[in-house]
């Protein structure tokens, strides 16, 4: 699986400060002993884990200083499992710092683990987009099995890793019903295969669903170009820390329709920077409204762009992580 865009950003920030970074997917490392071998083989001096449970637990007890970046499901889902919560508390005790994307995530973490109160920082995701200028939208549509003129289409793009917490099937039935009424609306689900069993389930459902298409992950430049060309970006997740796809859409001046969950509501203000829906029927109502109301679309796009540029500076994110890594450097010298 390709690393997430945010993981590449963290690596870029640290390498810009002169550090040598090795990027590993926690799902490829099955045990703490594999981490120990990696630390020894690469002479690693410090580590940064994305996700308190999935990444953080692997770093315990190895004697190298590390920091944590909360992912979203660690605070929204894993915290409800007693054993996982206990493990995460131990990880936070050992971590030199932890980063939350929002103030509300920080509050959640401090409520669960008061002992970590002094080491949790807030840094929203920094966003930078770079659409591939050679990307061909008509070719993308044909490859998606959409053989209509792009001029008359409204393409809704749902970008997510194919796993249950992203709930890519949530809108499929309601969207298909809408497509049967209006054949020029399509939803294209784009994303890497994270859970192979669930990916097969998604593929089987989408094959039977009129107006819904599934394509595998794309290079980031092509994905940004697809985002820029689509009518709107959709997020239907059960849980989110902070959705990069939503923020990238705002940066690319594309309207966003997002499921009304805390992680999404932290960045999407209803009817201001995007539209929030609570069920599939409301999604269709809001999507129809967006299609028929160009003034609303223009307002949302303008507000979204201003929000991202004011609150999700890539340069500010770089500065924060470079400063936090100095905490780890101090621990190495001690």
TrEMBL record:
InterPro entries cross-referenced by the UniProt entry: Glyco_trans_1, Glycosyltransferase_G1
Gene Ontology MF term list: glycosyltransferase activity
UniProt keyword list: Glycosyltransferase, Transferase
SUPFAM superfamilies: UDP-Glycosyltransferase/glycogen phosphorylase
Source superkingdom: Eukaryota
Residue span, Glycosyl transferase family domain: 147-306
Name the record gives this protein: Glycosyltransferase 1 domain containing 1
Organism, scientific name: Lynx canadensis
């Amino acid at each position: 699986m390709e690393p997430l865009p945010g993981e590449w950003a963290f690596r870029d920030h640290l390498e810009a400060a002169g550090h040598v970074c090795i990027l590993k997917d926690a799902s490829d490392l099955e045990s703490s002993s594999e981490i120990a071998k990696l630390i020894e083989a690469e002479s690693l001096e410090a580590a940064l884990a994305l996700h308190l449970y999935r990444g953080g637990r692997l770093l315990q007890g190895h004697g190298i200083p590390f920091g944590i970046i909360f992912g979203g499901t660690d605070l929204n889902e894993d915290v409800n499992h007693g054993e996982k919560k206990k493990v995460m508390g131990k990880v936070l005790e050992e971590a030199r710092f932890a980063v939350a994307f929002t103030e509300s995530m920080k509050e959640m973490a401090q409520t669960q683990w008061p002992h970590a109160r002094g080491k949790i920082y807030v840094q929203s995701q920094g966003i930078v987009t770079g659409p591939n200028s050679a990307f061909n939208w008509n070719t993308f549509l044909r490859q998606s099995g959409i053989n209509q003129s792009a001029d008359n289409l409204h393409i809704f793009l749902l970008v997510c890793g194919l796993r249950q917490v992203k709930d890519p099937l949530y809108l499929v039935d309601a969207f298909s019903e809408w497509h049967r009424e209006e054949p020029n609306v399509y939803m294209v689900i784009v994303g890497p295969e994270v859970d192979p069993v669930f990916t097969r389930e998604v593929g089987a459902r989408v094959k039977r669903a009129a107006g819904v298409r599934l394509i595998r992950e794309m290079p980031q430049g092509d994905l940004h170009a697809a985002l820029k060309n689509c009518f709107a970006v959709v997020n239907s997740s059960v849980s989110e820390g902070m959705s990069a796809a939503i923020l990238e859409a705002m940066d690319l001046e594309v309207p966003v329709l997002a499921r009304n969950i805390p992680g999404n509501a932290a960045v999407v203000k209803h009817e201001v920077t995007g539209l929030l829906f609570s069920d599939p029927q409301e999604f269709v109502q809001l999507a129809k409204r967006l299609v028929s109301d160009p003034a609303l679309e223009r307002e949302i796009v303008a507000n979204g762009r201003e929000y991202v540029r004011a609150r999700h500076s890539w340069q500010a994110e770089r500065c924060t992580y470079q400063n936090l890594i100095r905490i780890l450097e101090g621990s190495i010298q001690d």
